[in-house]
């Protein structure tokens, strides 16, 4: 049993898996969620995990993990804790696995620094399945020299851990990564519809493309496993993807970068979100592109 | 030594490598190119390969391979041969490894069928390096039942051989594959420029993305090996890429498919081709996108 | 009564109005349509217009007018007549008011020239209402030196007659004009939706824009009269608009011109055509853009 | 001589013309600019205009006009004045002719309301030439019931005065108007290049289009008078146009409106701004599109 105690805040689809991996790696983990059912579930499902209220969880931990819908939520929790005298005394590190916003992460980092808490933005890629398997990629921003101590905890859920620069860098790369994912979903859909109209079986076409220069994770995994099957069951919501893409659009806007390809991606997924709603699977973007031509990808 | 004799027409950068692999696999190969230096070079460099004029090469072969700049060239050679009585008497199969046009391949196939020659469009992906190593992907269209006999010859240069449907199907999938490659070059460039402006080292960012959901062959291979190095030395010309993308655009147009993502890709690479010329490396598209923001990907 | 006899081929919504204006100007006009009801209607409705079969109409005329769905139809009629020995003996000029294709018009012109018939492509803009009022704009291509003689007949229906160059020039400018119309429909729709979401009354906004630098015929006429009213009743079909835009796209493709703005227009109206059908009014494009945001322009 | 005294803050290219028209209409006008040369110039050039420092100008006026680079500058001046006790006591109305930002205008309006000053955003369209001639369009937002009193002053420089809604409405419509202007510059440029490649004289083509359905202020005025002449001398800077387009993009983003046409416009003009700089004429966008195809519009 490891002597470091961790707090884990936010036990949604992704958070609970991360929390379970940390506990499973031998860290005593105090789990908190707004929904008491969620923390009870975590306690019952994972080793070394105990349900806790927010304040005691943080008070008794050296490392706090958060996994929330967006940086705004993280900021609220942090501000709340900063106003409770002494709550953060024991805390040395805060690791935020939210798909967050680089600019807001920089602000949170400097606020926590006033209490000697070192903040890392630690965006993860690989989905709940990758979390369960411990094979996530972690994209980390924050003080490199202090990173060693949390890296070993992060390695309980991530196989590829990449330190990318100062605060916000992890969230920035995650935002770009997810925008590329969205771009690939759009462009691959359009290409497959052209092949379908041509009478070519799409499973075979994807097999060919996936060993060729046009390949991407979308041709290799998303399309064959979740779209051709008509399952649309990956489990990553369109609303969350759109949030990440908007973070990337903000970065492009701030730096005056013309980006016609990524911009057209944003317009397409915005159509999908407006028509299908936040809660659809992110792969349902495909359905909008299908409607435009009257052809299905199957 | 295999008893089947092959003709190989077109000994450019790609063709000579394919020709060398066929000879190396033990097939007697008669090599022809408009440029006599090219066929002399093939004879000197590869096992079982003999330089030959066009007519005798075809007259003495059971299988003809072609690797030409586009389907129009293939059509010209085929029409030329069809007018020479008896030239195709021994030929059973014609395998066209050109990055060709699906519609023109259908026409060539039906013309050759009048002389009992079975035509396969056999587009390849993997570049000269993949040819040398014998690890290409071959995307094949044509009569499936007759495919077995040529498949073993094709396997001398291709590791993944995928039969995709009737005549033209191989060229159609290749056109879509290369259009996805072009789309990825554009969108990844835009994303990397955003990260560069943010101060993030791009080699590390590419490492993170390349194990995450936004990954593609462009993040995994093209960018780190040929762009970050500022080499732009992959060896696939912008002119040839544009030809393939235009084939895909034709397919979209014929089937009335709206494809905003692939279309914007075409507009960007057309700018690159107009400004940089046909002979630039296809990765120099990146330079146009860099000029738009004044930031370089390195 | 003018001594020149005209034939008029194609008596659809637009053609019959043009035919009526020519007759009304005092030219004896022999009217032909595939549908006998249409030529009977023309005879009954207009002065100096007589219903006729195709061959006698052409045989007895010095000037032939055509107004057909596209250049392909014109080409068929011309080829048919060329095969009937002597039919074109009296004909000096052929004026094609179809929204045609520049390249096909060039071919038709050279075929007719073999029988000493001078061909003019004479695209018109202004719709059936403009035809009735005789206020159309005519965009003409063909031999300038011979143009004087037909110009006075054309002036029976067009107020602005512009000679633009050799054969095909009229159809080329019409194709670009209609593509700009389509582009304006799309961009104005997007802008108005932004203002609607902001709570601004659109009739007033259009009044302001229509005397400012962002104005276009779409802000001045199409939107206030046919969209804000929710009438969508201009009477120009989406299918015909798409045909003209595709002609323009072909021109861009042939000349390797990157045109991201016009291209995105084509993708949007292709979506509209696939979903709403050829027969919708061209302004119903607006409905697709409305669906994307869930906001209506009214 | 009218009894109302006006202050005019900001005497750039546009501001000084507006100031001159107000003075010319008989209003005593106190003119202020950061650059003393500018206010001296206004005093010397226009009737009833006196150069003044900022505080006395405002202290002695019932109506304050501002014409500054953007809303941020307006906000700074207003905040500065609000901190000087009593400065705004006499002021009843503030009319901001800046091409401003709707959201910031709402904030300024509510701040000024605390001192009983009624704020109107009054964006103008028509350029310095329209100001000199008094033929501008004014797009006004703010309290409609109070508008009558300032409307007569505004009519000294504007012919079309349109009240569009509450605070910010004028700036919102101006932003959309200028974005449509930018969109038209892009799409017309692309279309003209296609016609140029086809060998059609562009002055004649523009004449045809400008009486047809594809017409816009860009085909009727900007292209023939400032681009075909190669003058690029309209006098409205690219930097200011981009600012207005970005205001429109912000409105689209806030309301989740997919707008592929306006978005592609923004990407193109951002390229132009990055390459040509803020101070270029807004029509120099054309040069970027020309470079893409290697063809000039002349």
TrEMBL record, chains A, B, C, D:
A molecular function (GO) term: NADP binding
Q: Any idea where the 3-hydroxyisobutyrate dehydrogenase-like NAD-binding domain is?
A: 168-288
Q: Which InterPro entries match?
A: 6-PGluconate_DH-like_C_sf (IPR008927), 6PGD_dom2 (IPR013328), 6PGDH_NADP-bd (IPR006115), HIBADH-like_NADP-bd (IPR029154), HIBADH-related (IPR015815), NAD(P)-bd_dom_sf (IPR036291)
> Which keywords does this Swiss-Prot/TrEMBL entry list?
NAD, Oxidoreductase
- Pfam families on file: NAD_binding_11 (PF14833), NAD_binding_2 (PF03446)
Q: What is this protein called?
A: 6-phosphogluconate dehydrogenase NADP-binding domain-containing protein
Q: Which residues form the 6-phosphogluconate dehydrogenase NADP-binding domain?
A: 6-165
